[in-house]
């Protein structure tokens, strides 16, 4: 099992390096001068040259790429004294850097990844993402929990009562849930439950996790603002979990070992919970892991419609302002999430099915 985990971590590292390379090349061929974006219309040539030198854009593309990898790596190499060097150990850029050892004028340091600074706000990209990510993580976790619990219950009942009215209604819901775009569902739910039925639901169309109290003395946790975006975000994964659970469980229930277990006199509850449902979970785990990764990455449309200040809103704002470092940092941050979730899913697969890790 240990060798299996090490292999998955190595493959995940290769995937991340590939993503870094594609993102770097893509955003370095896009039109636009970051220096003029930062300085505005009154920028003079000397200031533009100084900003480009600070960003390393006056260097060859290969050197810029190596510098970008050096910034992202937690263990990196920097110049100690030459503040004009592109790889200078700038305390403003790397405030938490700790020197491991030195070789001449260079040092190998341990630091947190540096995603550069926003062109517009001058803030560190990591600060922007870490400020937005907890809100997206909470929204995604609540949404996927709703989808998983309800999906397993509905899908199991639909499989156990095949061709019944409940089964047919669950199929209609699954098709409808998968067909409705997220942005349309968000607008529809906001209009119905936060506008037409606002007097009964007391839900807000636009709201954040924390709300300022009536006297302006501080913020309080307002979980009711989480209801609508979480439900809307969970509709599509819920529909997929229902359909996958139903079809996979029906396939397992028709297996020979299930018929053998029935012949031995096992109770229906034990047969379903201990044997059938566990073996039917593999496709559900695959689907739910992919959806959870995408939701954690930022449900852009849902967050934007409900003004939920998460990663999705940060990406939209950065795109509208051509703030490339924020977009690049968000893409890489999303990639890290996807890689680790996929590794976790592979480990869960190996635990559920020993044939996978043996293979």
Structure commentary:
With 359 residues, the protein is mainly α. The protein has a domain at 125-358: Orthogonal Bundle (MetI-like fold), CATH 1.10.3720.10. Helices cover 67% and strands 6% of the residues. Strands 1-3-2 form a three-stranded antiparallel beta sheet. Strand 2 (98-103) and strand 3 form a beta hairpin. Helix 5 runs antiparallel to helix 6 and helix 5 (125-160) packs antiparallel against helix 12 (281-298). The longest helix has 36 residues, at 125-160. The mean pLDDT is 79.
Brief write-up:
The chain is 67% helix and 6% strand. The protein is built from 16 helices and five strands. The longest helix has 36 residues, at 125-160.
Task: Looking at this protein, list some descriptive labels.
67% helix, single chain, 16 helices, flat, MetI-like fold, 359 residues, two-stranded antiparallel ribbon, mainly alpha, 3-stranded antiparallel sheet
Question: Would you spell out the secondary-structure blueprint of this structure?
Answer:
Elements: H1 2-28, H2 34-39, H3 45-55, H4 61-72, E1 75-79, E2 98-103, E3 106-110, H5 125-160, H6 165-179, H7 182-196, H8 198-201, E4 210-212, E5 219-221, H9 227-253, H10 256-263, H11 268-279, H12 281-298, H13 300-305, H14 311-320, H15 324-352, H16 354-358
Antiparallel strand pairs: 1-3, 2-3, 4-5
Number of helices: 16
By secondary-structure content and strand pairing, the structural class works out as: mainly alpha
The N- and C-terminal alpha carbons lie at a distance of 11 Å
**Secondary-structure element series:** HHHHEEEHHHHEEHHHHHHHH
Number of strands: 5
The name CATH uses for the topology of the domain at 125-358 is MetI-like fold
What's the CATH class label of the domain at 125-358?
A: Mainly Alpha
Low-confidence stretches: none
Instruction: Give the strand content.
Output: 5-15%
Architecture (CATH level 2) name of the domain at 125-358 = Orthogonal Bundle
CATH level 4 superfamily of the domain at 125-358: MetI-like
Largest beta sheet, briefly? 3 strands, antiparallel
């Amino acid at each position: 099992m240990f060798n299996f985990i090490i292999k998955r971590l190595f493959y995940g590292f290769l995937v991340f390096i590939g993503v870094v390379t594609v993102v770097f090349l893509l955003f370095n061929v896009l039109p636009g001068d970051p220096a003029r974006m930062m300085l505005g219309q009154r920028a003079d040539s000397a200031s533009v040259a100084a900003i480009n030198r600070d960003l390393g854009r006056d260097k060859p593309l290969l050197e810029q790429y190596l510098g970008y990898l050096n910034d992202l790596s937690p263990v990196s190499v920097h110049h100690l004294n030459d503040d004009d060097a592109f790889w200078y150990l700038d305390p403003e850029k790397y405030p938490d850097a700790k020197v491991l050892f030195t070789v001449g004028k260079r040092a190998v340091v341990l630091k947190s990844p540096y995603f550069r600074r926003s062109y517009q706000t001058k803030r560190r990209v990591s600060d922007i993402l870490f400020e937005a990510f907890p809100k997206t993580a909470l929204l995604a976790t609540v949404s996927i929990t709703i989808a998983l619990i309800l999906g397993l219950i509905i899908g199991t009942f639909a499989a156990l009562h095949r061709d019944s009215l409940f089964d047919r209604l669950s199929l209609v819901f699954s098709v409808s849930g998968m067909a409705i775009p997220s942005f349309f569902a968000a607008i529809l739910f906001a209009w119905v439950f936060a506008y037409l039925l606002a007097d009964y639901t007391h839900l807000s169309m636009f709201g954040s996790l924390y709300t300022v109290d009536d006297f302006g003395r501080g913020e309080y946790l307002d979980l009711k603002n989480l209801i609508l975006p979480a439900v809307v975000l969970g509709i599509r994964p819920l529909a997929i979990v229902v359909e996958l659970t139903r079809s996979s469980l029906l396939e397992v229930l028709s297996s020979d070992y299930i018929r053998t277990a029935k012949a031995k006199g096992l109770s229906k509850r034990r047969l379903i919970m201990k044997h059938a449902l566990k073996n039917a979970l593999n496709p559900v785990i695959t689907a739910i892991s992919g959806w959870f990764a995408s939701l954690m990455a930022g449900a852009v449309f849902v967050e934007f419609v409900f003004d939920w200040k998460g990663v999705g809103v940060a990406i939209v704002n950065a795109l509208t302002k051509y703030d490339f470092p924020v977009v690049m940092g968000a893409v890489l941050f999303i990639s890290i999430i996807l890689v680790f979730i996929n590794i976790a899913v592979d480990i869960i697969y190996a635990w559920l099915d020993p044939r996978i890790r043996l293979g």
